[in-house]
Write a structure and sequence with these properties.
The chain is an alpha/beta fold. The chain is 52% helix and 13% strand. Helix 4 links the parallel strand 4 and strand 5. This is Response regulator transcription factor RqpR.
């Protein structure tokens, strides 16, 4: 029996996933969460094989929670189920510890296939993500600049691009305001940008935020 946790801020999505997964005798949903913080509590209290997690959620997002979830449950699989296309987030997230990435427009049967693959301790790569990984290995200097950011820099970048202040970010990521400012300076240098509005424009242009 594969024990699953569902993390999504929409109750109707969680309900639909729970009902669909219940149709498979080898899958059992052990609990649900509505954001990254609740996901951490869920993992702390339940022994899960695979966590099925949305990316964009209010409060603590899936991206914010990923490192802590991976630290708390290193053997648990984490399957990201996101509304964003694979080319925008998949590589960064897999690099940061996600076991697989699916767009919410995928066939429901693919979610089950991914869960079963990840429960075996393997990564689940769609053909599109595998192609992206292959392209990344082949290219060097022409990679999008946001792919050169560290995990923390990428988190801070997305939050700044959404208009969050250094104070907001420091609370969400449990960092000091000074540390957030250091990350901001570093990522600005790496990306060759000079203002928060530049970050927002870049993120919108590359469809990293809505």
């Amino acid at each position: 029996m594969i024990k699953i946790g569902i993390v999504d801020d929409h109750a109707i999505v969680r309900s639909g996933l729970r009902q669909f997964l219940a149709e498979h005798v080898d899958l059992r949903v052990e609990g649900e969460a509505a954001n990254g913080r609740e996901a951490i509590d869920l993992v702390r209290n339940k022994e899960l094989d695979v966590l099925l997690m949305d990316l964009s959620m209010p409060g603590q997002s899936g991206l914010d929670a990923l490192a802590m979830l991976r630290a708390k449950a290193p053997d648990m699989g984490i399957l990201i189920l996101s509304g964003y296309p694979e080319e925008h987030y998949a590589i960064n997230l897999i690099r940061q510890g996600a076991s697989g990435y699916l767009n919410k427009e995928c066939e429901p049967s693919e979610i089950v296939e991914a869960i079963r693959t990840i429960a075996l301790g393997r990564r689940y790569l769609t053909p599109a993500v595998a192609e992206l990984l292959a392209q990344q290995l082949n290219r060097k200097d022409d990679a999008p600049v946001h792919e050169r950011l560290s995990e923390r820099e990428f988190q801070v970048f997305l939050k700044l691009a959404k208009g969050e202040t250094a104070g907001d970010i420091s609370k969400a990521l449990s960092l000091s305001v000074k540390t957030v400012s250091t990350y901001r300076t570093r990522l600005m240098e790496k990306m060759g940008l000079s203002s928060n509005s530049d970050l927002t424009y870049y993120a919108l242009k590359n469809r990293l935020i809505d």
